[in-house]
Write the structure tokens for this entry.
Amino acid sequence: MPKRAKTLADAGEFEFIKSIRTMMPKDGGNIIRSVGDDCLVTESFENSLLLNTIDTFVEGIHFKQGYGTLTQIGQRCMAASVSDIAAMSGNPVYSLVSLSLSPNMLYNDAINIFSGLQSTAKLYGCPIVGGETTSSAGPITITVTVIGKVERDRVILRSGAITGESIYVTGYIGDAMAGLMAFERKESGFNNLKKKFLTPLALVTLSRALNGLYHITSMIDISDGLSTDLANISYESGCGAEIYEELLPLSNDFRRISKKFDIDMTSFALSSGEDFELLFTTDDDTISDKFQLMNHRITRIGTITDSSKGIRIHCKNNNVEPVLPKGYEHFKS
Amino acid sequence: MPKRAKTLADAGEFEFIKSIRTMMPKDGGNIIRSVGDDCLVTESFENSLLLNTIDTFVEGIHFKQGYGTLTQIGQRCMAASVSDIAAMSGNPVYSLVSLSLSPNMLYNDAINIFSGLQSTAKLYGCPIVGGETTSSAGPITITVTVIGKVERDRVILRSGAITGESIYVTGYIGDAMAGLMAFERKESGFNNLKKKFLTPLALVTLSRALNGLYHITSMIDISDGLSTDLANISYESGCGAEIYEELLPLSNDFRRISKKFDIDMTSFALSSGEDFELLFTTDDDTISDKFQLMNHRITRIGTITDSSKGIRIHCKNNNVEPVLPKGYEHFKS
């Protein structure tokens, strides 16, 4: 008779916690107390501002099982959370994780989710040093809190953009959601797009480098789609923006899959989140050329304007059209 | 035709966020940036240690609708989270909240949950200054992160108990779970017990006061049951403990409901969590008398021993029995 695989119910919370505790760093250095007490206790960050994020990822909303491994789901959740620290030009330092899982879940699946979260957290220098697990009758729900720091004179908010400044994006836009589409339509190939969806990067180093070399006045990560995230910068900065369709950085794979499924590339790219590329403004309009050295694409896509005209796009057909925030909105069907 | 009540799907995430944003403090003082950016950005806590908690509350596991209002559910979740800061003898400063809610949820119900979370957070001095909302097909899931601080020489860990010291608990034990039992068995009356379950207090002020007046060597909040939480102190401190059945502080209502349902008071009290009373150790065995001034019951229940004998209870019948951790364990059925 084949042995049934062990579930979380078979193991129980204490065995699971004991197991993931071995994947956490030991106390010492700046960690006064991690797991094993009521709170995480650490040294403060002297002479730095304190950054805190919280992000929840729900199965069926933010991810589905089957498109990648459970380890990759963990990796993606952590990268998405760390990306919020990158968007402030901060350094991630620690993270806490709360997992709500079904008792029927396979024990090794739960371990794999944690292992993906932790390997990515360590990659970015913010190991998971605490958290909790709860059972739930609902979907897998992962909440990540990342604690970071940033020098007072280097924090970049969304609110600093000024009329006349250039608008830039890093990398390509739309690739992650195109990757998800490739999964949903059971397309073989398009591995670069699928990889961008499954295991996005948090651009901590790039953000810090940009901030060191240029006068970056506002920044956000593209998690909700360029149209929505540019609207966020405009709203917080009290300005407008004009961007150029022909300047939008679209990858060859993105163009290829859009053609295959007869999708309007521009509107898809503007509304696609989950790339975790950076959108930022600066008074320097020559970054693109200078930055080729770092082997990371940086593209100037437009200019900050005053707020009276809102956000507009100069289309290839010479029309100028308003850009409406079309990113994902929770609860709306 | 009666108008259908507004749901989260009718309103959408942006309207909901706009509404709860009005309940949050404005930026200023030590808050550089709260909502409206990728992270919470605050001043660091100079000369203090940094405390961080994360707690998740899942409908059907941690709370049920119908026993109290949704506002009270929010209040209870926040108090439970702040209690972790109290257990370190820290001061809560800010909190972040993540809500995973069904699109079908009534809009006002969601507002009420947030309002309960926020009113309690403000009560303890740690207003909610950021967070996020996500839709979910599953149960209501509330994750709270509290950020706190504590002076380096005043932090109390679980690990400092020493053989010969006295073990104390604040308040009464078992009342909260007895209150839940009253709800489950549809008992009228027992309002004190029900109130203890619905709206427990986080003992921040009491913890700070105790810590200022006495040499407290270890502390934990009773969230998982006295037997489990005392086992946690013993494990982290590398010691044993002996407690006395006749010393356990049981309220009159607790005794009354236990008799009514023929429940073994001692084993129920030892395994009942959710009280958020404090369990602590100190070398002073006269606190109980001194502390009556503060109108808060503090009861000496036993003594820390060396680790060889584990945790034992001296029963009223003069037997000495081992105390096994019988608190709640997730995933186990």
In short: DSSP finds eleven helices and 13 strands in chain A.
